[in-house]
Design brief:
By secondary structure, the chain is of the alpha/beta class. The protein has a single domain, classed as Rossmann fold (3-Layer(aba) Sandwich). It has 10 helices and 13 strands. Strands 3-2-1-4-5-6-11 form a 7-stranded parallel β-sheet, sandwiched between helices. It has a two-stranded parallel ribbon with strand order 7-10. α1 links the parallel β1 and β2. α6 crosses α10. The radius of gyration is 19 Å and the shape is globular. The two termini are 36 Å apart. The structure holds nicotinamide-adenine-dinucleotide (NAD).
Length: 314
């Protein structure tokens, strides 16, 4: 099996490439090294992959890639490339989001029409729910994206659905809920918290800490991607969450225990686009994909702490 992974130098894409290679697939990874966070972190993500003989890396923007040729011998596509992050999606930043999240997805879907791919897996996001009136959120809950980022991720999902309905593209959308663990992006909360703790700085949180999140460990997300290859039903959408939700402020004692340090917290104003709660119903993924999150928050956070220390203070 030949797989194309877009966003292969990123947090989730690089970990997915590792699993695909370990399982015996041939992988072509594409990434343009967008400047949202430092290149050296993405290069680190790629280091173990570049040692694998069945991995080929292409540094290119999807919008500029000769896609028909790239897809010629592919059996599946994992489309993870995107401009991530809620807060930078306002104002002038939006054009980057529409180019990397909407236009790039449309181009990839268009090129997939004439290919032999058996599955097109799209990395969607819990941000499509926004201020959903339903908790937990199920795939049939109303969608009210609350940030421009959420709007672009939802547009990508709709594109997948309409290419499926009109051209039979075997697209499956996975809505990831706040992913954490080794490799987590530097703009995400746990990464920032651990780095500040390591440097004996206070940690900043937006709002009063009563917001809740359904945190999902990276390897559970990878399990869901792998399962979708065989079992994901084309034209369907699946929530991929961690199975629990936690108040942000309840995480601090866990961080103190893991790091063996007292934490100083500074509260900042709530950010535009941040929702109060996320919480996934995952029974559809359990039923169709045999998905079952395995990693408890405490264990997953320990893994991330070890990774952060190796990354910044080897
Ligand atoms: P990431 O920023 O670490 O990885 C995305 C990668 O895509 C980056 O390396 C970037 O350089 C690349 N990229 C962006 N636009 C590109 C383009 N036009 N051409 C080629 N490469 C391009 O982000 P991540 O956290 O690994 O997220 C991966 C996917 O999962 C994204 O689609 C994101 O929206 C989705 N997602 C992530 C989370 C999370 O908690 N991390 C939650 C929900 C959804």
């Amino acid at each position: 099996m030949n797989c194309l992974v877009t966003g292969a130098a990123g947090f989730i894409g690089s970990r997915l490439c590792q699993r695909l290679l370990k399982t015996g697939y041939d992988v072509v990874g594409v990434d343009s090294f967008t400047d949202y966070y430092p290149r050296w972190i993405k290069e680190k993500n790629l280091e173990p992959l570049k040692k694998e003989k069945n991995f080929k890396f292409v540094e290119k923007d999807i919008n500029e890639l000769e896609l028909k040729n790239t897809l010629k011998n592919m059996d599946c596509v994992f489309h993870h490339a995107a401009q991530a992050g809620v807060r930078a999606s306002w104002g002038k930043g939006f054009s980057v989001y529409s180019r990397n999240n909407i236009e790039a997805t449309q181009k990839l879907l268009e090129a997939s029409r004439d290919s032999r791919i058996k599955k097109f897996i799209y990395a969607s996001s819990s941000s499509v729910y926004g201020f959903s009136p339903e908790l937990p959120m199920s795939e049939t809950s109303p969608l009210f994206p609350f940030s421009p980022y959420g709007v672009t991720k939802l547009a990508g999902e709709h594109l997948c659905l309409l290419y499926h309905k009109n051209y039979g593209t075997p697209a499956v959308s996975l809505r990831f809920f706040t992913v954490y663990g080794p490799g987590q992006r530097p703009d995400m909360a746990f990464h920032k918290f651990f780095k500040s703790i390591a440097e004996d700085k206070e940690i900043s949180i937006f709002g009063d800490g009563n917001q809740t999140r359904d945190f999902t460990y990276i390897d559970d997300i990878i399990d869901a991607n792998m399962a979708s290859l065989e079992k994901g039903n084309a034209g369907e959408i699946y929530n991929i969450g961690g199975g629990n939700r936690n108040k942000l402020k309840d995480i601090f004692p866990i961080l103190e225990e893991i790091c063996g340090k007292k934490i100083k917290v500074r509260h900042q104003d709530k950010q535009r686009g941040d929702v109060l709660h996320t919480f996934a119903r995952i029974d559809k993924a359990q039923r169709d994909l045999d998905y079952s999150p395995r990693i408890h928050l405490q264990d997953g956070l320990k893994e991330e702490w070890t990774w952060i220390q190796n990354l910044y203070y080897p």
